[in-house]
Specification:
75 residues; alpha/beta; 2 helices; 24% strand
Length: 75
C-alpha cells in the first residue's frame, strides 16, 4: 500500500477532498503536525507522497516559528 505524509500547520487543516481521492487511490495517510513534531526524525523519501499544507506564516518569520528551519531541511 502506498503512503502519503501530510504536514499540517494548523490543527483544523486536513487534506480535504484530496484525502478521499488519495484513499480511493490506495494510499494510507499519515498526518504530522509540523509545529510540534520533531521533523528531523522524518525520512522525506519514506512516503510515496509528501503533502505540505500551508499556514498563516511565511518563511521570513523563522524567528517567531523556529520549526521552519527543520521543515526546510526536510523538504
Amino acid at each position: 500500500m502506498r503512503k502519503a505524509l501530510a504536514l499540517i500547520h494548523l490543527a483544523f487543516e486536513d487534506l480535504g477532498s484530496l484525502g478521499s481521492e488519495l484513499t480511493d487511490a490506495g494510499y494510507t495517510i499519515e498526518t504530522v503536525d509540523a509545529c510540534t513534531a520533531d521533523l528531523r526524525n522524518i525520512d522525506p523519501v519514506a512516503p510515496d507522497l509528501l503533502v505540505i499544507l500551508g499556514g498563516p506564516l511565511a518563511v521570513y518569520e523563522h524567528a517567531a516559528y523556529p520549526f521552519l528551519r527543520a521543515q526546510i531541511d526536510l523538504i
